[in-house]
Amino acid sequence: MRGLSCLLVLKALCLLWAAQAPSFREETFHGRHAYVLDNGKVRVSALRGAGHIAEIRFQSADARLAVNPMRVPHFPTIEPWDYRPEIHDKIYGADASRILQSGYMGHLLNFPTFGAPSEAEARNGLGTHGEALAVEWKRKRVDASAFGVTLVYGAELPKTRYRVERTLQLAAGESVLYFEESVENLLAFDRPVHWVQHVTFGDPFVEPGKTFLDMSAGKGEFRGGPAPANPLRPGPLTWPTGVAPDGTPVDLRPMIEKPGSGLYAGYLMEPDRPLSYFTMYNENFRVLIGYIWLTKDFPWIGDWQENRRATQPPWNGRVIARGMEFGTTPFGGPMRQVVEEGRLFGVPVYRWIGGGERLSTRYLAFLAEIPPGFRGVADVQVRDGVIVLTERETLRTLRVAAGRAAMLRPEP
């Protein structure tokens, strides 16, 4: 009888281990082809169309912990290769953002441009935020074991003649997603590029007045927008304080509350920090999400907020979102315009890639469970296989296991 009991316990343990063992699957997510990484603690969905990270969330029965922070549109999206202007322009708009809007979800790679194309580029079929989000990202390699799961996927950019590749790794037992990313110039001459990680969060995680941002940014600039929907006075600012049109100070940490408003502000990351970070949480949920990266690779960040301001299709005045856009430029736009601007605060606002050159970077995203009444993040440090978050005001610490965090150690 004892032997039978032991066998039953062993079988149950094996089933539990199998359920939690790191795995890879190809599924659908919000109607899209998705590569899914799962370690039993965290689930990640990366889209085959455009490569977006559409989902990164805890596996939990508690909806306050299992919420997906990433923006998933209220309208159906499509794969970029399925776009037909005669059908889809009516749904997604007929301007240079149409391919972007038709598939936009979560974390986008904006490469080799950021922002609107020039008139000539638009005539030649290039759209907003670059070609990487307009092509298929093909699976190249998958490895899954008891130690973790790894996906290598990438894309060829036929119009701009680049190759992009990304490695995603989820280690067993961790709530950290490790990124290794490369871009390769397939032409023989040097070129300026934009390289921006456009990480967009949406409702219900993003909620006006209840979602808070913390980051290692310093001085920045707000260049204005449509006056009635403009919550800030154009001009210089220093994180986390802005100036309202009437001259009163504005706390920039919470998501803007006024319906029909929005903003975009660009900031320089603190240059004396080898690693930069941002974190975001909603006071009604139990999860915080953050990203950490090498400051030398991505010295800029943009804070974009949308509170039902955009009324054009397919947004139709319904979108609530906040996007953190860290990369090689704070504002972007047509490349000629950005190159002519050159620098802001003495720091270049674009990057060069040599003829035939391959550039690479490393960064990570993490989830942390936060206690009730959490006050926000005062600092983030990476130490010997752990991410340490210091809480604002209380100076209490939260620790997130990150066994491969040494990958972010700056090269001498």
Question: In terms of per-residue confidence, which ranges show pLDDT below 50 for 5 or more consecutive residues?
Answer: 7-18
Roughly what percent helix? 10-25%
What is the assembly state of the chains in this entry? single chain
Give the spatial strand order of the biggest sheet: 6-7-8-9-25-19-18-12
CATH topology: Beta-galactosidase, Chain A, domain 5
Looking at the overall shape, the CATH architecture is Distorted Sandwich
- Average pLDDT confidence is 94
Main pleated sheet: 8 strands, antiparallel
Question: What's the number of helices?
Answer: 6
**Total of domains:** 1
Describe this structure in words.
The protein is mainly beta. The chain has one domain (26-379): Beta-galactosidase, Chain A, domain 5, CATH 2.70.98.10. The protein is built from six helices and 28 strands. Strands 6-7-8-9-25-19-18-12 form an eight-stranded antiparallel β-sheet. A seven-stranded antiparallel β-sheet has the order 5-11-21-20-17-13-14, with no helix packed on it. A four-stranded antiparallel β-sheet has the order 1-2-3-4, with no helix packed on it. It is globular, with a radius of gyration of 21 Å.
